Amino acid sequence: MKTFLITLMSVMLLVSALSANDLPATNPVATTQAITSAAPQFQNGDRVCFVGDSITQTGNYLGQIMLFYATRFPDRKIEGYNCGVNGDSSGGVIVLKRYEWDVLKHNPTVATIMYGMNDVGRDYYGKELTGPDMANKRKWPLVSYSNYMLKLSQILTDANCKIIYLTPSIYDQTGNQTAHNNFGVNDALGVCAHDCQGFAAKFNAGLVDFYGPMTVLNQQQQAKDPSFTLVGPDRIHPGAEGSLVMAYLFLKAQSVSATVSDMAIDAAKTGVVKQENCQITELKNEKGVVSFVVKENSLPFPIAPDLLKKVEPLVPLTTDLNREMLTVSNLPAGQYKLLIDGQAVQDCTADELNSGVNLAGNTTTPQYKQAAKVADLCAKRRQLEGLLRTFAGVTGAVVAAKVDPADEQAARKVIQDELEKRRKNNVGAPHFELYLKYSATEWQKMATDAADLWDKVYVANQPNPHTFEIRAK
Fold this sequence. Notes:
By secondary structure, the protein is an alpha/beta fold.
């Protein structure tokens, strides 16, 4: 993860003001004890800024979180903003005042903060790097992290923004990836995780622990398969599976309900036994066909089956987050066909229906198909946000040059000059080329289009009534 916003200068500014007494006394390895996660749920009208580095900028974990909210809580209009920047650090967001022009401009009611990967000084770690001098060098970045996080926290608190701290996702120092192994980085991230626990207590904030569970899961799976990793080949960036695990941990910390809907009827008595998060009407049992109309209050969480198959052995996502239950008791023994709106969607036995069938992962139901359309809109918005995050990251270079980003001509001159340097050094040039590819008007249109897509999400996600039929085969 190459830093193209922050130089060591931002760290040195702080270090020069600190004494040796400010160094953390805790051994990184000793800070990996379990951390209790608890965070408030997002509410209607919340404007949520996800603040972080490239792990946030990719939009993977936060994209799943926002998709969950769009399908589980269609009555809560929540605006989510990706405020992650490639190469950023807790110092970067402060030194370049990114909190002003990239976070607070959204007037957030809630901000999640995840830093650490670019804060710990990864180049100071490795099995080959030993000795007192190296150990001392490793301490200073952790001091910087703690102090900048405290400063950012105070800024957000003063802006009446609620905070949810995210402990860092892991650095895979135990995997067999070919990428160079800066062994010890994950232990240093454990210090950051421990600090987050203290920040949450100090600011009466939410806390979601990624670091602890991901470290344990990664080691457990690698004991079975050394090639397994929750993160990518670079040991840093979680892929689709790791990001979905992160979303699961986040949502569990928020104590969201597992229930999409819970429909239970008694076929013999033609009675409604349970209707949780739904309303059942027009229940009938005529000529051996049980039918009813149901209006569910939510849509299923649409996870691609191939991805779900990989994640389910790691975390009980379906059981804990995605239960769209249909239970039909007192049916005569035999085989049955379930139809929704006249279309066959599943074959079941009387025993299976009596025990309860979870429809949430059934991709043929109209509810799932509707949720998949919501997911498509969310994905299109994420694509636009990906471009906009590159714009935000490069804007940091304009700010660092003490040029007003609103002055398009001056800003483009800064970017052009920086691009030439980066082409020579072969570091981060594509980001700057992308910035120059579009005019200020085109960049603004992307932002408008992204906002419009989110409005479309909250039209597409409104549940519809459906007619269920259970017929003997």
